[in-house]
């Protein structure tokens, strides 16, 4: 069934196939790698000269206290609507979260009748404006293990306005 002539044809077909792949790879290298491997002096990219030292300079905006100094309590009241689903501003009216009446400069975890998770007391002692800002920016990141599921206020102006509003209603 397999004689010498058949085996020669099969071996020739396999060698021919490998030769086609080898030549295809060689042609692709020439086409797609201009300037490399001695295929000419063709530059494949432009070099743009710069006087940059390589250091990345991050521009910082104003500090929180600078923004807080010019905060608008009226705008904070509008932003506070996001918080009103869980927090009340009336003294003693706890909801899903503790009431926020007089929260600015109040001791952390000090509302009577509210069961805190304990994560807040581990990271702060008092709710001063900067501590409130850090917590409101990313509650889960600031106090890992907190029960507060709010994602946070990313804009520094919104945080400053809300804290100014909270300071105006019980400070």
TrEMBL record:
Keywords: Electron transport, Heme, Iron, Metal-binding, Transport. It comes from the Bacteria. One of its GO terms (molecular function) is heme binding. Pfam families: Cytochrom_C. Residues 71-170 form the Cytochrome c domain. This is Cytochrome c family protein. It comes from Marivivens niveibacter.
């Amino acid at each position: 069934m397999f004689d010498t002539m058949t085996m020669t044809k099969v071996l020739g077909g396999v060698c021919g196939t490998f030769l086609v792949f080898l030549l295809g790879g060689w042609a692709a290298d020439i086409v797609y790698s201009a300037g490399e491997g001695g295929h000419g002096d063709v530059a494949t990219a432009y070099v743009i000269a710069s006087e940059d030292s390589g250091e990345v300079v991050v521009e910082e905006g104003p500090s929180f206290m600078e923004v807080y100094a010019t905060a608008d309590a009226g705008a904070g009241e509008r932003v506070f609507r996001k918080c009103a689903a869980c927090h009340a501003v009336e003294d003693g009216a706890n909801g899903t979260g503790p009431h926020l009446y007089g929260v600015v400069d109040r001791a952390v975890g000090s509302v009577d009748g509210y069961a805190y998770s304990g994560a807040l007391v581990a990271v702060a002692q008092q709710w001063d404006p900067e501590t409130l800002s850090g917590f409101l920016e990313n509650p889960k990141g600031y106090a890992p293990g907190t029960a507060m599921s709010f994602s946070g206020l990313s804009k520094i102006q919104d945080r400053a306005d809300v804290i100014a509003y909270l300071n105006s209603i019980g400070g």
